[in-house]
Amino acid sequence: KEVKLMNTALVIFVKTLGLSPVKTRLAKDIGIENAEAFYTRSVDATSALARKIKLDLADIEIYWAIAEEEGLENEVWSNFNKISQGNGSFGERLSFVYEQLIKKYSSVCFMGADSPHLDYKEIEESLISFNKNPRKKFMIGEALDGGFYFFGGKIPIPRELWTTVHYSSTNTSIELCNNLRQIGYIEFIKKTFDIDKIEDLKNYTKSDFCINNFLPEQYNLIKWVGDNF
Fold first, then answer.
1. Which residues on adjacent β-strands are paired with residue 139?
2. At a CB cut-off of 8 Å and minimum separation 6, what does 159 contact?
3. Residue pLDDT, tens place only, 16-43
4. Cβ-Cβ contacts under 8 Å for 36 (sequence gap 6 or more)
5. Fewest beta carbons within 10 Å, which of 5, 33, 101, 109?
């Protein structure tokens, strides 16, 4: 049964294989070919996760936020809506995409393709709770490395609140949250990890996920990692 949400955009930030280097930190540990193979499978798993969420929740639209202008024409991104990340620093890109979509949607949520182990039921429940409670202006899923794997917002965010954050830092989430608290209340959801290094891959195969909620593409990725690393 579909659950009706306020008009929500779920945006997945991606790079296009062949146009940009992908998983560069992971590539230092396992080689470029393996890192690219992981990335491709991770995108597939994230795409399946987004399809399931869209199937279960009404009034949600999925977007690929694509790093390269040429990537907008790539067939690999043809299954969802597409939006350019724009140019500049990562903070400028986050601001650019958010600003475009918050004009059209009641809430805008961001994620990457770095956490292919997310539980679709947990994400759905978080989205429902977030959209039902008018007090909650922002939603953050913190990553164990100090970043964040999920973001949601309901109100416009001044550009400088995005751009003054140091990204890929152990303080990224803290800095972003300190900025956002200037304009609204934050709800935190479950912490997890991104997969950026060989240690993360090892955690990935050892972690006690709620596998009953896993999709075939997520199972396939865990098996591939277990077989190869």
1. 152, 187
2. 92, 95, 99
3. 999 999 999 999 999 999 999 999 999 9
4. 17, 22, 23, 27
5. 33
CB 39 within 8 A of CB 138: no
Q: What is the Cα–Cα distance from 107 to 127, expressed in whole angstroms? A: 10
Structure tokens that stand for 213 in this block: 């909620």
Nearest to 135 by CA among 181, 176, 187: 187
Taking the C-alpha atoms of residue 142 and residue 144, their distance in angstroms, rounded to an integer, is: 7
**H-helix segments, the chain:** 24-30, 32-56, 90-102, 120-132, 159-163, 172-180, 198-206, 216-228
How far from 84 is each of 89, 153, 156, 228, CA to CA, in Å? Answer: 14, 19, 19, 34
In contact, 41 and 93? CB cutoff 8 Å: no
Q: Please choose, from the candidates 177, 184, 129, the residue with its C-alpha nearest in 3D space to the C-alpha of residue 156.
A: 184
